[in-house]
Write a structure and sequence with these properties.
By secondary structure, this protein is mainly α. 75% of the residues lie in helices and 0% in strands. The protein contains 25 helices and no strands. Helix 12 packs across helix 25.
Amino acid sequence: MILTYSIVVVFLLGYVCIALENGLRINKAPIALIMCVLCWTLYMFGCPEYVSEFHGEEFSRFLSVFHISDPGEAARHFIGQKVLLEHLGDACEILFFLMGAMTIVEVVDTNGGFNFVRGRLATRRKRLLLWQVVALTFFLSAVLDNLTTSIVMVMILRKLVPERRDRLIYAALIVLAANAGGAFSPIGDVTTIMLWIKGNVTSAGIIKSTFLPSLVSILVPTFLMQFQLHGLLDQEPDKSEFNPKVLNKGERLTVFIVGVGGLMFVPFFRSFTGLPPFMGILLVLGVLWTLTEIFLAREKNIEETMSERVSRIMHKIDMSTIIFFLGILMAVATLSEIGVLESFGQWLEHATDGNAYLVTGIIGAASSIVDNVPLVAGCIGMYDIATPAAVAANPELIMFVQDGSFWELLAYCAGVGGSMLIIGSAAGVVVMGLENISFGWYMRRVSVYALLGYLAGILTYALI
């Protein structure tokens, strides 16, 4: 029991440090790694008891094969060869998917693919431009991810809107649109990717059930905030390209279509082959990599093309984010192994009388303060996917079946809820840094509208 409390305390202390990343000025990735290793180290001290309680049958079969006389030594072997590797495998499915997707987006961006996106935004009318930016961000984040989409759209915005006061409003709505767009897509946000890969939701199910709530959650704040913009832009939008590129226009368009179209193809690949999503991402990356190598091979100046090659572009991938996810997912796995998540889930269900809207609504509100990845990882560990037999025995479990209301609301609330504070999502934090948006300005000028959109989306889900 003391070890269980110790593991929970270490996790909570690490969680607090991660939430206070900006104030502490320490990257959250090393904190997550330290938290992960400390949790598993403490777990190993009590592993004989934990293994006997939560893996009794599997451990017995393990002993019948390996015949290790010392119970402590046997438990440590069992953890190292089975339990730990299983959790690592689950985490790596998500991490390889993210690394592949991030590389594909970087390849498209480096080779000028997103110039075609900016070409669609050519009006001087401020409100019309706002709606165009929001629409592009919303749908683009469903194909890419909300963090990458936010960066791309802010870079585009700097070319289009020179006035800082107006640009802050556009930037704030980019955060809201990116998070809303990522919430309805199986590949649009880390949390929906986690739920999709784990089998809690299907591609068709999550899009069908949460598209309209996500759309409403951005339409409401956009409609209300558009009245803060008036008239026309002071100058014509800059239509020049960001940087001269080695590839010609046709080749850039091909890279854009293959990269973005490939990301959209991944859910179909999984349905058709039954292979995990990261295999589909690796296929798309391989095709795109080969294509760019063919395009760049015609250039005689090798040095000129080096910055465009995928082998060099891969150095741009934000590995600290990948390492952070690894630490968080493995730390949460420890809580699952000691039974804390299951106990907390039972308590939460009892405290809310099993109301899925209340539970997920609280999680969404909490995600505006702390990172939504461990919140969703914790929820996945707290509740199992209900089988038809379990539902027949207990009809209340219907909301936990695959594509059940709990999982769909969790995807929506964890994704959209982070928009209520600028520090509540990765998209918000990166836009905060790019445009130097203060926490106070966002809270005064945006948070209320984000909250109204969030609640309107939940109401929409309830109605449909």
